[in-house]
């Protein structure tokens, strides 16, 4: 299959001099290179790390924030290695005081926040019966409350600027229910609602708020479970590729390119939208038929 390559070099920099504050800029479950398949591009990074790099390649100054300072610092180092400008900050985005302090630091350093990018997210399996209350609370806190908190403390800054763009990372799991993961689905549905609610309230203040809903991606988090078994990793990747209408999984890079567009002035009239970046997955029925249910009449 001829998959279009993404190039690093740009003729124009859409975000030259803009300041991006990116929460979740590390890579979840990053492991030594060698086992990961890297099916489309040479490097398989998590969504946050790839997105931070794409912002910087489009000229933005990126403040890389992560609960794991080493992970944020590694992303900032990569950006600087490519000639970009980036800083790293540690923050637990589920804690209001931590988020407030981080936004204060970023503002003191950069003077403004042009783009708030909320990438943080984790998944726990199971429907309402299987998912523990602790897991449910944790997923809602990390995936949804963190975005409420970053908006809470960044919006007054953007309001004073009379300008700003917010990008929230959702998932196609908010609208397609192929595996039971109630907490994840609910949290991402909440992200979509939060996005629209903020967009409506702040539209007249020059602040836009949009979400991106990725479909199946090839990322370290997805590959981690199979890291000890290359054959099973390959089999899983093949089946995930085949589940996508385009027949290949996206990568963090694809999410990053969409984010740059939504953050840029080219998207100046777009707000409150959830942009699917999913190779067509939300267009079609599940690729596997549902299991028959005993006694069900059709
Ligand atoms: N990987 C996929 O296939 C896929 C598909 C659809 C949507 N998404 C979404 O994309 C986003 C990124 O997923 P990913 O798997 O690529 O992860 P990622 O590699 O981008 O890593 C997320 C980062 O968030 C950080 N983080 C976690 N909790 C935090 C907290 N409380 N405060 C600050 N930082 C914290 C982690 O340390 C990690 O570095 C998530 O929102 C996820 O739901 C992923």
Return the average pLDDT rounded to an integer. Answer: 90
Which percent bin holds the helix content?
40-55%
Question: Distance N terminus to C terminus?
Answer: 39 Å
User: Which fold name fills CATH's third level, the topology?
Assistant: Rossmann fold
The CATH class assignment is Alpha Beta
Total E-strand runs: 7
Can you tell me the residue ranges where pLDDT is under 50 for at least 5 consecutive residues? none
Outline the fold blueprint.
Elements (H helix, E strand, L loop, with lengths): L18 E5 L23 H11 L3 E6 L2 H13 L3 E6 L5 H15 L4 E4 L14 H29 L2 E6 L12 H21 L4 E8 L5 H5 L5 H14 L8 H12 L10 E4 L21
Parallel strand pairs: 1-2, 1-4, 2-3, 4-5, 5-6, 6-7
Helix pairs in contact: 1-2, 1-8, 3-4, 4-5
Bound molecules: nicotinamide-adenine-dinucleotide.
Fold and architecture overview:
- The protein is an alpha/beta fold and 298 residues long.
- It has one domain: Rossmann fold.
- It contains eight helices and seven strands; from the N terminus they run βαβαβαβαβαβαααβ.
- Helix 4 packs parallel to helix 5.
- The longest helix has 29 residues, at 133-161.
- The chain is globular, with a radius of gyration of 19 Å.
- The mean pLDDT is 90.
- The structure holds nicotinamide-adenine-dinucleotide (NAD).
């Amino acid at each position: 299959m001829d998959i279009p390559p993404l190039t690093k070099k740009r003729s124009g920099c859409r975000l030259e001099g803009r300041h991006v504050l990116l929460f979740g800029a590390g890579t979840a479950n990053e492991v030594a290179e060698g086992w990961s398949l890297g099916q489309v591009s040479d490097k398989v990074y998590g969504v946050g790390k790839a997105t931070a790099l794409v912002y910087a390649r489009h000229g933005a100054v990126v403040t890389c924030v992560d609960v794991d300072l080493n992970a944020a610092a590694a992303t900032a180092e990569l950006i600087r290695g490519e000639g970009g400008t980036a800083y790293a900050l540690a923050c637990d985005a589920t804690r209001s005081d931590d988020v407030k302090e981080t936004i204060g630091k970023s503002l003191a350093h950069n003077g403004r926040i042009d783009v708030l990018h909320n990438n943080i997210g984790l998944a726990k399996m199971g429907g309402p019966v299987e998912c523990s209350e602790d897991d449910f609370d944790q997923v809602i806190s990390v995936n949804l409350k963190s975005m409420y908190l970053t908006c809470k403390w960044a919006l007054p800054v953007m309001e004073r600027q009379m300008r700003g763009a917010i990008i929230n990372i959702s998932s196609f799991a908010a609208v397609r229910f192929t595996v039971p993961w109630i907490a994840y689905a609910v949290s991402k549905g909440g992200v979509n609602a939060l996005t629209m609610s903020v967009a409506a309230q702040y539209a007249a203040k020059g602040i836009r708020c949009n979400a991106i809903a990725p479909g199946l991606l090839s990322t370290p988090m997805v590959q981690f479970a199979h890291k000890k078994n290359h054959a099973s990793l390959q089999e899983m990747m093949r089946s995930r590729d085949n589940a996508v209408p385009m027949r290949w999984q996206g990568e963090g890079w694809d999410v990053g390119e969409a984010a740059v567009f939504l953050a840029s002035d080219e998207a100046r009239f777009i707000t409150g939208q959830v942009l699917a970046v999913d190779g067509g997955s939300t267009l079609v029925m599940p690729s596997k038929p549902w299991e028959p249910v005993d006694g069900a009449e059709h």
